[in-house]
Amino acid sequence: MNRKFAAAMLACTMLSFPAVAQDDTATDKGTGEDTIVVTAARTILPPNALPLTIDIIGKDTLDQQIAISGSITDAVSSLTPSFSPTRQKLSGAGETLRGRSPLYAINGIPQSTPMRDGSRDGFTIDGFFIDRVELIYGSNALQGVGGTGGIVNQVTVGAPRTEGLGGRFLLQGTADDGFSKDGLGGKVAGLVQYKAGRFDATVGAAFERRGAFYDGDGRRIGINLTQGETQDSQTLSLFARLGYELSSTARLDLTASRFELKGDGDYVALAGNRLTGVPTSAVRGTPPGEAAQNRTESVALSLTDTDVGGGNFVSQIFFNRSRDTFGGEVNTQATFQDPALAPVGTLFDQSQNRSRKLGAKLSYERAVPGFEDLTVTVGFDALVDKTEQALIATGRVWVPPSDFRSLAPFGQANLKLFDGLVRLAGGVRWENVKIKIDDYHTLASTTFVACSATVTTNCGAATYGGVDVAGGKPKFQDLLINGGVIVEPWAGIRAYASYAEGFTVPDIGRITRAVNRTGVDLDSFLDISPIVSNNREIGVELKRGPLDASATYFWSSSDKGQLLIARPDRIFDVQRQRVEIEGLELNLRVAMPIDGLKLGVGYAHLQGRYDSDSANPDGIVDTDLDGTNISPDRLNLNASYNKGPLSALVQTQFFLSKSFHGKVNPDQRNNFGGYNLTDASIRYQTGFGGLSLSVQNLFDKFYIDYSSDTRLPTDNLAFFAGRGRTFTLGWDYRF
């Protein structure tokens, strides 16, 4: 999109068609209602005091979407037009927000592992324990490393407010359109809370069994043995929170969670045919090795006090550990071959990501004495992350242990002028990062490809590598800035402009494991340097009476961005090139004259390009980002009804066709044809709990999902259809 045209379009939009936040529970509408504090923003100021695009997905809306689609990531994607359509797999590789990877967090604890991104960070806690999801759009460093696309912060259930015992339970059953026996699934979850004086406790567990998925033609959806599946799996999620009120303003909280999703390993993949349009399917069988799975454990201790010297003090120390096991497919194991261990083409192996994080966060915020219109926040963050990727069948190391250490003091200021008519906001964050990697030896790097019915070219070829790489301690220091201005001439009507920088490290695991030449010293290996991206945006919001609307135009760039480029053996490598992205987001939600009825529309247009001259980059972006790196344009329509005991929703998502042009896309094989999906949900509250029926893909439409349609365009094993009509019947009860 031409920037001048986009700016003119946005100006017209400001007058005629602004857009909206995604949820009814975002209470700060300039109407005097209680304000939800967006904890991911590191401030207790209301969202309308911040020059950011922020959405809050409340509990009721979140539960409704999870019942339709099955996960928090799917719920966020369904409600957010500039978020990629999900792959409906355990791996979220290629799922982006505004064309870049978001930082997933639970109560501010990072779940993402950017040093070796296993793309499992969207599955680290069951949605039953989440009270709301906070979305902050665009590159920023508010939570440190990883937020180049934005922040998806999952806020867990809060402490009980009333004395005594309480809780809630959930029972759900799921079936495909044909009620196939192997397609049946179910979920049971419970949460118990207790409060006695200053002490309170919350404990809960959720167990879910998912059956096989079926597409709109009644065919079993294909299995991705390597990256992992949510179908044919079992999930156990545990949660606990213990709290103690030290005083009327101070509180101590200990939270812990454990999440484990395991594939059942009941199916093997049956290759599809892209030429005839037949998607990958699955048949009964026993895959080799262990089924793909992931496990995440987190513990956090926080101390908060809303009145320390007249200000708000927040502190947290946390530990997070994850272990992501990837499955194995015999005919796609070229990378793992080593003639020293077994004849080429016969060696089986599978990998496992292991990551451990230890961190601390401190912040203090207060209005300046004698100048109460100026609010200042100061803080300090520390993070130590150790990540590696091992081959568990043979005991080899694919990605060497990589130590990441970040020390970051920061400061923010927010100045209210003319009684709130204008606000100025800005801040700085000093990132001091050190990465340590010891000397290591790469794999034999055999490019052997087994001959099969689906692989007939270059099969049997083999070249061998395996090189010694000198480790190092590359360092990074930078001052990341942000700033913006907000104008709010009337309550509920505001416009803002902002600039913010975010940073992350590239997928160092993919880079280090792919070194194929001698003499490399990681201290001078520029591909390991961090990614610094920026986000510039202008927006307008209207939240008055029956209207809840907003419009945002943004553009961002990074000189050494990160691209995932597919190799012939289905392994993705990282390239570091200049990336530029721009987009327009529109949302509108209107309360109709019929009490309880609301209509909504959302639209996102994104365009991203990169410099494809990897050998001699010239800084000129000449090729469109493909479906592995950016989402399609989307139009969302929805109608909801909430009155008394009855609530209902109908929503349609139009994923618009997209062509990828540029220097390295001559044949257009990865173009996207587009599709639309409609979901529905209804719930009725009785004296014995709430009964709900949710339907995903209401019209049982057959479609090839966006990721499969645009990445690996010649791979018949990665040609997946989306899920067909699926029913979920639920009962929930509170006491």
Structural overview:
The protein is mostly beta strands and 735 residues long. It has five helices and 32 strands. It has helices at residues 3-16, 59-69, 72-79, 508-513, 706-710, and strands at 54-57, 103-106, 109-110, 130-137, 150-156, 164-176, 185-196, 199-210, 233-245, 250-263, 267-270, 281-284, 293-308, 311-325, 351-368, 371-391, 396-417, 422-437, 440-441, 468-469, 475-490, 493-504, 531-544, 547-566, 572-591, 597-610, 623-624, 634-643, 646-655, 675-686, 689-696, 726-734. Residues 1-33 and 448-464 have low confidence and may be disordered.
Beta strands, count: 32
Shape: globular
Number of contiguous helices: 5
Helix/strand-derived category reads mainly beta
The span between the termini is 53 Å
Low-confidence stretches: 1-33, 448-464
Taking the sheet with the most strands, its summary is:
22 strands, antiparallel, barrel
Look at the structure and give the mean pLDDT. Answer: 89
